[in-house]
Design brief:
Length: 339
């Protein structure tokens, strides 16, 4: 591989750059990567250790990590001069130290938008499932404890006419609002910035600038904000206590948005009616108390788990690498932290 130019934006490359992929991707994506680049794949799909990640970064022109690969400033400092692009597989980039990458003139890209519908569909599934106690009903049948239909057992709540509170109104939050409106829910949202009136009208959504007021009035609350210092434990014990008694909490965003210790207490006490969780604070470890609670549906981070979504994300990764090789700014370059 020969580097012809080197700028903070891109490198023009002759030959095939060395591309290291940290996890097993869709077969069609891996086949295309192997065709275009000098690629190192992770056939065993085992997460790389910190030392293995550093070694990969030292020997690569391009690293293709995922959300489970923590890439901090010390690791980037040890990467050497060869690494020019971190082409992340996924939209979230909180696991990458962007300032350190910028200092080393390493471009960071992601794959925004590809999992919007997949995550919104899963969120809507949980919004429907938790109030109707689908988790409890399924366990009853699987455990052989179901004794037959009765008019007063496993009574849940309908969602038509209920107030859905959305925290974070980006692509996924808006897609959830669109779906919820079809089920007759009243949509109220909180966001750093208010959406244009035309989008609010289209979604039938009302803006609430005060997060605590939104928590107090939502029958169902769903989180769609990014992880970071400003949102760590956004729902702490005080805010969980401020939620409407009997309300339901859905989280398909990031686990550290919620204080899980406080969540367990709010669910055990009956203050919250239930929860639907796809993400956790210490993934892949899940607090066994959450698993044991009958009013909680726990999923293994399935928000983006569709064939179509994962293939599309892989295609975006490839496009970002090719733009970088050609000396152009990649279409999905993460500009936060760049001058």
């Amino acid at each position: 591989m020969t580097v012809v130019t080197d700028t903070p934006l891109a490198r023009r490359v002759h030959g095939k750059p060395r591309v290291v992929v940290t996890r097993h991707l869709m077969p069609s994506v891996e086949a295309r990567l192997a065709e275009l680049f000098d690629v190192v794949l992770n056939a065993g799909d085992l997460p790389l250790t910190r030392a293995e990640l550093i070694a990969a970064m030292r020997g690569a022109d391009v690293l293709v990590p995922t959300v489970t690969d923590r890439i901090d400033a010390e690791m980037i400092a040890e990467a050497g001069d060869r690494l020019g692009l971190i082409a992340n597989f996924g939209a979230g980039i909180e696991h990458i130290d962007l300032a350190a990458a910028r200092a080393r003139k390493i471009i960071v890209t992601n794959t925004p938008g590809v999992f919007t519908d997949d995550t919104a569909d899963l969120t809507m599934m949980l919004i429907l499932s938790v109030p109707r106690r689908l988790g409890e009903g399924s366990r009853l049948v699987r455990d052989g404890q179901w004794t037959g239909w009765a008019p007063s057992t496993l009574l849940g709540r309908c969602i038509g006419g209920k107030r859905l509170g959305i925290v974070g109104m980006g692509r996924i939050g808006q897609a959830v609002a669109h779906r919820a409106r079809a089920f007759g829910m009243e949509v109220v949202y909180h966001n750093r910035h208010r959406l244009p009136a035309s989008i609010e009208t289209m979604l039938g959504a009302r803006y609430e600038a005060d997060l605590d007021r939104l928590l107090a009035e939502a029958d169902v609350l769903t989180l769609h904000c990014p992880a970071g210092p400003g949102t760590h434990h956004l729902l702490n014990a005080a805010r969980l206590s401020a939620m409407k008694p009997g309300a339901y909490l859905i989280n398909t965003a990031r686990g550290d948005l919620i204080d899980e210790e406080a969540l367990v207490e709010a669910l055990r006490s009956g203050h919250l009616g239930g929860a639907g969780l796809d993400v956790y604070a210490r993934e892949p470890k899940v607090d066994p108390r959450l698993i044991a609670l009958p009013n909680v549906i726990t999923l293994p981070h399935l928000g983006s788990a569709t064939v179509e979504g994962r293939e599309h994300a892989g295609e975006k990764v490839i496009a970002n690498i090719r733009f970088w090789m050609d000396g152009h700014r990649p279409p999905d370059q993460v500009l936060e932290g760049w001058a």
